[in-house]
């Protein structure tokens, strides 16, 4: 059995626990009588499998789960996923049921969304997608809109169509969906330094000149994982850099409708180079798996070909639901209810966590919680889980392995009621004020 397989077996049998620090390369090589290079390759393979994570200056640790943040067990509060809360008077599941019942009672409409011969999105569905993406003066033409099987599918086909043969520039902490898609497609990532306003224009210009960048990935509004919203001036500066460098921009905006007022997108500043991506699942309801890509003319054909190659056509049923919800005001009502709930929960979180340096954005349904010494990400996520709270470890968001993230993402989720969320946040605050040994991880 290879060393990476032995690590996996020890983790599965609880001989190694989440948060445990692995021996140094040199120490383990001495113990096993192998070369340091053998250990380095084994650790790299274990990291590729998601078993361990390296933290710069600290060492290699067993991760808190297998996959994105692990699977919560019975009795735990799930603050690892991202399910924006909603006020109690609005029930998206009931609204979805009513829409499906209405559709079932309309034979002609039902036939139109179940016909097998369709090969293009219905014009009404493209118009609804354009309406969902429109804001702050940005109005994509319906003929430039492509519908996808969710935001992750939209992101994947954009990389497939526009980034092959080059690199993708992104923030050091970025959407794990981007990391997964880029890794699967063999597209390398390069990171660009950020400040509190987002990606630094000068740093992006240097990256574009040095790293064969084909595409720049940006989350200007309510970014994952830190909730950051980029000011308009910084968006304009980045658009100018991308225009001069002649690179594509993928503007990912799944949570944008929660922001009010909502800043204008880069797609309005750089329309001929920007693919604007939105979706319905996070804001409206998780079961509505439909994404929207507003594509510039020069990219539209390649994106359409990538879409056909990966799913042929987004499910017309999803397009019909989105269209009805936009036309009858359901989408607006759900969005408004989520904004209200998010504002209340961020206020709660600020009262409990603000003095701990948490990055809390009033419109973001998640926050970034930095970890002080001597906590490591693995130790803290394991201790939180033992205390009944599941959070998303920062190493899930690290774009390049040589970098580290000393923090966790906390979702202010719909699955927990207010009292449960308050207790969970207080648990996290108490943990941070303790030490790993006093939290039972000595």
Written account of the structure:
- This protein has 17 helices and 16 strands.
- With 442 residues, the chain is α/β, with parallel strands linked by helices.
- It has 3 domains: 3-54, no CATH class; 76-88 and 337-441, Aspartate Aminotransferase, domain 1 (Alpha-Beta Complex); 118-328, Type I PLP-dependent aspartate aminotransferase-like (Major domain) (Aspartate Aminotransferase, domain 2), CATH 3.40.640.
- The strands form 5 sheets. Strands 4-12-11-10-9-5-6 form a 7-stranded mixed β-sheet, sandwiched between helices. Strands 13-16-15 form a 3-stranded antiparallel β-sheet. A two-stranded antiparallel ribbon has the order 1-2.
- Strand 5, helix 8 and strand 6 form a beta-alpha-beta unit.
- Helix 1 packs across helix 3.
- The longest helix is centred in the last third of the chain and has 24 residues, at 330-353.
- It is globular.
- The model is unreliable at 65-72 (pLDDT under 50).
């Amino acid at each position: 059995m290879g060393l990476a397989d032995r690590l996996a077996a020890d983790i599965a049998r609880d001989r190694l626990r989440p948060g445990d620090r692995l021996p140094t390369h040199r120490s383990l090589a001495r113990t096993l009588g192998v070369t340091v290079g053998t250990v380095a390759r084994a650790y790299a393979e274990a990291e590729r499998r998601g078993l361990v994570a390296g933290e710069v200056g600290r060492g290699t640790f067993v991760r808190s789960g297998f996959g994105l943040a692990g699977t919560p067990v019975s009795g735990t509060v799930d603050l690892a996923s991202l399910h924006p809360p909603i006020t109690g008077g609005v029930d998206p599941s009931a609204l979805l049921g009513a829409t499906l019942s209405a559709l079932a009672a309309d034979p002609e409409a039902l036939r139109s969304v179940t016909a097998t011969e369709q090969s293009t999105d219905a014009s009404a569905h493209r118009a609804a997608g354009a309406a969902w993406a429109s804001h702050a003066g940005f109005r994509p033409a319906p003929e430039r809109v492509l519908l996808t099987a969710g935001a992750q599918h939209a992101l994947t086909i954009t990389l497939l169509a526009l980034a092959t043969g080059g690199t993708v520039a992104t923030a050091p902490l970025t959407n794990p969906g981007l990391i997964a898609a880029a890794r699967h497609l063999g597209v390398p990532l390069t990171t660009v330094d950020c400040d509190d306003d987002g990606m630094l224009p000068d740093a992006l210009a240097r990256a574009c000149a040095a790293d064969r960048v084909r595409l720049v990935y940006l989350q200007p509004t309510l970014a994952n994982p830190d909730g950051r919203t980029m000011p308009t001036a910084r968006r304009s500066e980045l658009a100018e850099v991308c225009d001069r460098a002649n690179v594509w921009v993928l503007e990912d905006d799944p949570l944008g409708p929660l922001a009010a007022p909502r800043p204008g997108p880069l797609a309005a500043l750089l329309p001929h180079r920007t693919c604007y991506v939105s979706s319905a699942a996070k804001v409206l309801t998780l079961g509505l798996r439909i994404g929207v890509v507003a594509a510039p003319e020069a990219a539209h054909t390649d994106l359409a070909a990538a879409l056909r190659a990966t799913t042929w056509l987004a499910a017309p049923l999803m397009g019909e639901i989105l269209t009805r919800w936009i036309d009858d005001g359901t989408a607006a009502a759900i969005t408004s209810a989520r904004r209200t709930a998010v504002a209340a929960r961020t206020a709660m979180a600020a009262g409990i966590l603000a003095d701990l340096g948490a990055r809390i954005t009033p419109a973001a349904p998640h926050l970034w919680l930095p970890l002080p010494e001597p906590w490591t990400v693995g130790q803290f996520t394991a201790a939180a889980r033992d205390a009944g709270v599941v959070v998303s470890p920062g190493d899930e968001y690290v774009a390049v392995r040589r970098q580290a993230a000393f923090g966790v993402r906390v979702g202010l989720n719909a699955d927990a009621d207010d009292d449960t969320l308050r207790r969970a946040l207080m648990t996290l605050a108490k943990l941070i004020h303790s030490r790993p040994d006093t939290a039972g991880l000595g």
